[in-house]
Amino acid sequence: MYGGGYIFSEPSDKDQKDHIDDPVKLQEFEARIDAGEKIEPHDWMPFEYRKQLIRLIEQHAHSEVIGALPEGTWITRAPGFKRKLVLIAKVQDEMGHAQLLYSAAETLGKSREAMINDLLSGKSKYSNVFNYPAKTWADVTVIGFLIDAAAIVNQVANAKGSYGPYCRALERICYEESFHLKQGHDAFIALAVGTKAQKDMLQDALNRWWRPIIHFFGPSDKASVHGEKLMRWKVKMASNDDMRNQFLDMYVPKILELGITIPDPNLKKNESTGRWEFSDPDWNEFKRVINGDGPCNAERLAVRKFAEESNRWVRNALLKQTMKQTIPYA
Amino acid sequence: MPNIESLDPRIRRIDLEKNPEHVVLNIMENWETYEVFHQRKRGEHHVHVGIVHAANPEMALVFAKEQYGRRLKCANMWVTQSSNIYSFHYDDEDMFETTPEKTYREAGGFKVRDKINKFKKENAPK
Fold this sequence. Notes:
heterodimer, A: two-stranded antiparallel sheet, 2 strands, 2% strand, globular, B: Ubiquitin-like (UB roll), elongated
C-alpha cells in the first residue's frame, strides 16, 4: 500500500543526457504499451517518457488558461444575452480543462505551483495562437469554431495515448468541447449568412487568423528521431503534418460552403497524395512569436501575474501549517 | 515591462506596471488535493472522477460541484484528501491474475443440466 510516493524534481537537460533507463524495465514498459495497456501514475516509466508527458500536459493546461483570455475579453461585449451566456460557459469550461490537465500532470510528480511558476517565468510555453489578439467579435467566432476544431483533432488523437490520467482528462474534455465546436460553428455561420458588414468582419478575422491556424499543429516533425520515440510510447499519437491534414480535410469545406474565402491562393488538396498543399506559413514567425515576440505575449503573462499576485492573500489566509503535499492518484 | 496596449477595457483599468518583475508561488500555495467521487443518481455507486485543490473539505465540495457537476445528472458527491487514499501497487497486479480462473466462484461453473438429462433418460419409464 502506498499513501502517496515520490517527489519528482525536473532535472536540467545536462542530467538527462547521462540518464540511462533500466533495459529490462524499459522492455516491459514497451511491451505493455504495445499490448494497448495504459500506464498509471505509480508505474515504472522511462525518464524521458515522464519528462515529455509533464511538458506536454503542462503546456496543454497553460494553453487552456491563456486561451480563455482572448475570449474572456469579449464576455462584456458579446452581441446579445444568449451569446454572452454561451461564452461565459465556454470560458468556465476552459478553466475547468486547465484544472483537469494540471491534475493529470501532478500525478507525474510536478507540483501545480511549479507549473504555474514555469508559465509565469516564460520557461514553459503555451499554444502560440493565443499570442494574437481577438480584435472583433468575429475573431471570437473564428477561435470558437476553428481553433477549437483544431484542438479537438489533437485531443481526440491524444485521448488514445498511453498515459491513463491524461486519457481520462481528455475524454471529459473532448465531451465538453463538442459544445464549444458547435457553438463556434453556429456563431461563425450567423456572421457568414448575415449582413455585408458581418460577412466582411468575418472574412477580415479569418484573413488574420489563417496563418496562426496553419501554425497551430507546429512545424513538420516527420523526420525527427525524437518524434518517433514519442510516437512509439504513445505520448504523441499522430505527426503534426497528419493532424494538420486531417483538420484541413474536415474544415476547409465547411468554410468554403459559406462563401468565405481562405487567404492562401496556393491552398489545394493534391488528390493523388491526399495531402493539402499550402504556401510557406513562415515558420520563423512561429518561432519568433513562441519565444516572446508576438503581439500579445507580454499582456498574457502580465495578466496572469497580476491575477496570481493580487489573489495571493486569499490563498495565504487559508493556508495551514499542517497541510502536506500528496501526489494525487489519478 | 513592455508597453501593453490591451484591447480589453478591464485590463486597461488595472495597473499592470505594478506587477513585481518575478511572481513566484510557494509550494502548497494551492493547498492540498482532494479526490472527488461522483454519484450520478440515487442507487448507483459513487465513482472516482478526479481531484480538486482546496483549503478544506467544504471548499473541496464547492469546487467539486463546479468542476465535475457542470453537466449531466448528479445526485451526490464525496471528497476526501488524497493523503487518505491507500492503494495496492501496480507491481502487485499479478496477485489478481488467477481470479478469473476460479470458476467454482461463478454460477456458470456448475453444469447441472447434462447430469439431469442423463438421469432422466436412464430412468425414463420403458
